[in-house]
Design goal:
alpha+beta; 4-stranded antiparallel β-sheet; 3 helices
């Protein structure tokens, strides 16, 4: 089954559902099942809303900390090759965020407070 058309509230073909569901209506979709040769009309509804704070975006040039890089030779080598600098206050290396991503060090990144992400 695949979606052939998606209609937003207010567009032609969705007005009846706007009258029925009001502001809860997100969209109307027409789906087709080629195997069964049937067309299905579905509605997507919003059932709950609440506050949400998006996570802070990481700027590529910002420094991040790579945890556990001191005792592990390969991590230490990768951190140093990426321009990382040892941090005496934390058992971690300070390195550019884009370098950490390029080197595949994201599993060892720490947040600002020193906790592993």
């Amino acid at each position: 089954m695949h979606t052939s058309t998606t209609i937003q509230p207010g567009q032609r073909g969705a007005k009846r559902f706007v009258a029925q569901y009001g502001d809860r209506l997100v969209c109307v979709r027409y789906r087709q099942d080629e195997r069964r040769k049937q067309r299905c009309k579905t509605v997507e509804l919003s059932v709950a809303e609440g506050p949400w704070t998006p996570p802070p975006r990481r700027r590529r040039e910002r420094l991040v900390f790579v945890k556990g890089a001191f005792p592990e030779r390969e991590l230490r080598r990768q951190s140093k090759d990426g321009g990382g600098v040892g941090n005496p206050d934390k058992p971690a290396w300070a390195i550019c965020y884009d370098c950490a991503i390029a080197l595949g060090l994201t599993p060892w990144l720490m947040d600002e407070g020193g906790c592993q992400m």
